């Protein structure tokens, strides 16, 4: 049953992706990207990744959509027809896809409990988390305790990205104001 | 029949690879920069799937310890992907800020238009 729901949701994801590739109106693309993120969050619920699903629904479907709509408000909403041939990109994608299929052929089937991924450090996390950290949520314990340095790196990246956005767009506002005052001077 | 069963077992990987290739195609073949960024985030989310799908155990439950359950899905990919989602929105915001500045400087968000203009000058 779980794998059936998973397959249906994945098929919907693929359909949404095809629609995104074909859509020329960028506004439509943004809405479809939001739908895509919500479907992705549903897939994550089926995969038992509830924390990730919550983050994807709030960050992927909400914040990303707001950012994209803001950018479209400041730029153009229509995509022009491509001028180059499609043959080269299609060949490249086919080659990459073939390599990926070749690479995943030997991976264990969906949902098997004795796959290699479940043998390494994970039993320790599951068995010792409550005793060692006191948190019943294993994901929180690993995020904030066992792999705390990862989270520090993540916040550093977000901080740097925030500085970058402020530097790039801060100039925009200053120039707008300069243009306004120049226009007023002319009057 | 055997091939069909293999396809069902690896259906998650088939879709993951399809999403990855579709994202790559949008990034390479489309010249509009906003569309390119959306293609990039499709590529990114397909990587989330690549990590999360093998972590699922059929009959398992979300990795929150409770005496009622004994089988939990793998929590490690969840942690890694939580980090990846947040970093992903950071890169998207930075990319969109660059697109807005490029639009201000060139009056277009199309890659080919900008290349043409630079060739003319």
Can you walk through the features of this model?
The complex is a heterodimer of chains A (187) and B (121). Chain A has helices at residues 2-22, 26-46, 50-74, 87-104, 122-133, 138-146, 148-186. Chain A has 187 residues and is mainly α. Chain A has three domains: 1-79; 115-146, no CATH class; 148-187. The model of chain A has no long low-confidence stretch (mean pLDDT 86). Chain B is mainly alpha-helical. Chain B has a single domain (2-120), classed as Helix Hairpins (Orthogonal Bundle). Chain B has five helices and no strands. Chain B has helices at residues 2-9, 11-29, 33-55, 75-106, 111-120. Chain B is elongated and about 70 Å long. The N and C termini of chain B lie far apart (62 Å). Chains A and B meet through helix 1, helix 2, helix 3, helix 4 and helix 5 of A and helix 2, helix 3 and helix 4 of B.
What does the secondary structure layout of this molecule look like, with pairings?
The complex is a heterodimer of chains A (187) and B (121).
Chain A: H1 2-22, H2 26-46, H3 50-74, H4 87-104, H5 122-133, H6 138-146, H7 148-186
Helix pairs in contact in A: 1-2, 2-3, 5-6, 6-7
Chain B: H1 2-9, H2 11-29, H3 33-55, H4 75-106, H5 111-120
């Amino acid at each position: 049953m779980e794998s059936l729901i998973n397959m249906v949701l994945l098929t919907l994801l693929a359909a949404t992706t095809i629609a995104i590739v074909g859509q020329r109106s960028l506004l439509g693309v943004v809405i479809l990207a939001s739908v895509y993120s919500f479907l992705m969050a549903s897939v994550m619920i089926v995969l038992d990744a509830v924390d990730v699903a919550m983050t994807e629904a709030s960050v992927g479907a909400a914040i990303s959509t707001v950012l994209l709509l803001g950018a479209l408000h400041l730029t153009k909403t229509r995509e022009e027809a491509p001028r180059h041939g499609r043959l080269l990109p299609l060949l490249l994608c086919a080659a990459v896809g073939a390599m990926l299929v070749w690479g995943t052929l030997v991976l264990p089937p969906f949902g098997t409990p004795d796959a290699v991924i479940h043998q390494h450090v994970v039993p320790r996390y599951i068995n010792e988390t409550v005793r060692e950290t006191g948190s019943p949520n294993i994901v929180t314990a690993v995020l904030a305790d066992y792999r705390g340095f990862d989270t520090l790196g993540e916040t550093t990246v977000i901080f740097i990205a925030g500085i970058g956005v402020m530097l790039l767009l801060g100039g925009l506002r200053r120039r707008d104001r300069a243009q306004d005052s120049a226009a007023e001077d002319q009057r | 029949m055997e091939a069909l069963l293999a396809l069902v077992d690896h259906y998650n990987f088939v879709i993951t690879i399809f999403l990855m290739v579709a994202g790559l195609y949008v990034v390479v073949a489309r010249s509009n920069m906003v569309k390119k960024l959306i293609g990039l985030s499709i590529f990114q989310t397909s990587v989330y799937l690549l990590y999360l799908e093998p972590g699922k155990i059929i009959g398992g439950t979300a990795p929150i310890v409770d005496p009622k359950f004994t089988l939990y899905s793998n929590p490690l990919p969840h942690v890694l992907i939580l980090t990846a989602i947040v970093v992903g929105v950071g890169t998207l915001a930075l990319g969109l800020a660059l697109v807005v500045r490029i639009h201000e400087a060139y009056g277009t968000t199309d890659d080919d238009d900008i290349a043409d203009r630079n060739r003319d000058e």
